[in-house]
Design goal:
alpha+beta, 7 strands, two-stranded antiparallel ribbon, single chain
Length: about 120
């Protein structure tokens, strides 16, 4: 069962307490886990992101947003406008990867202060 925008807004905005929202969602036959799983994060080209890999946390930059099924490194990645995937370039290794938005975290880019300049004597 998929959510419509109207159902989501109705379930989340009208009742004031957490228990009331849970009751309305149960009446609609939906659960909180379904709401969370269908709401992926939105990123744009150039966003600095972080994700978990077998080797630990990896940081990189979003290169492209994919909104249709794509063949990448021998696998078909299923993407849509509602649930896009992102092509990302790793900062350290320049490795290219593709991930769903829910696997990514947006991070702030750290800017190093300028190195000390030598004074002209």
């Amino acid at each position: 069962m998929e959510w419509t925008v109207q159902e989501f807004l109705f379930a989340m905005l009208l009742p004031r307490s957490h228990d009331d929202r849970r009751g309305i969602l149960n009446l609609l036959g939906k659960s909180f886990t379904m709401v969370a799983s269908h709401m992926s994060k939105i990123f744009k080209r150039g966003d600095h992101v972080e994700w978990n890999s077998e080797a630990g946390r990896v940081r990189g930059t979003v290169i492209k947003k994919v909104t249709s099924d794509t063949r990448f490194k021998g696998y078909t990645h299923h993407a849509s406008k509602a649930d896009p995937q992102y092509i990302i370039k790793s900062d350290k290794s320049d490795h290219i990867a593709i991930h769903k938005g829910k696997a990514l975290e947006r991070i702030a880019i750290r800017v190093r202060p300028n190195a000390r300049r030598k004074k002209n004597r």
